[in-house]
Amino acid sequence: MELDVVMLARLQFAFTVAFHIIFPTFTIGLSAFIATLLVMWQRTGRERYRTLARFWTRIFAVSFAMGVVSGIVLSYQFGTNWSRFSEVIGNVVGPLIGYEVLTAFFLEATFLGIMLFGWKRVPPWLHVLSAILVAVGTLTSAFWIISANSWMQFPAGHEVRDGIAYPADWIAAIFNPTFGWRLVHMVTAAYLTTAFVVLAVGARYLLAGRHSDHALTMLRMGAAMAAVLAPLQLIIGDQHGLDAARYQPAKVAAIEAHWDSAEPAPLVLFAIPNEAAERNDAEISIPNGASLIITHSLDGRFAGLKDFPFEDRPPVAWPFFAFRVMVGIGLLMIALGLWGAWLMWRDRLETSRVFLRLAAISWPAGFIAILAGWTVAEVGRQPWVATGILRTGEAASPVPAASVATTLALFLIVYTIVFAAGITYMNRLINAGPSGRDSEVEGVASRPISAATGN
Amino acid sequence: MLELYLPVIWAILIAVAVAMYVILDGFDLGIGVLFPFARKEAERDQMMNSVAPFWDGNETWLVLGGGGLWVAFPKAYAVIMPAFYLPVIVMLLALIFRGVSFEFRFVSKPRHELWDAAFFAGSTIAAFAQGVILGGLIQGVTVVNGQYAGGPFDWATPFALLCGVGLVVGYALLGSTWLIAKTDGAVQARARGQARALLIAVLVLIAAVSLWTPLGFERIAERWFSTPNIFFLWPVPLVTVALGWLVWGGLNSGREVVPFIGVVGLFVLSFLGLAISTFPYLVPPTLTVWDTAAVPDSQIFTLIGVIFLLPVILAYIVFVYWTFRAKVSVGSEGAYH
Question: Is the domain defined by B2-323 classed in CATH 1.20.1630.10?
Answer without folding.
Answer: yes
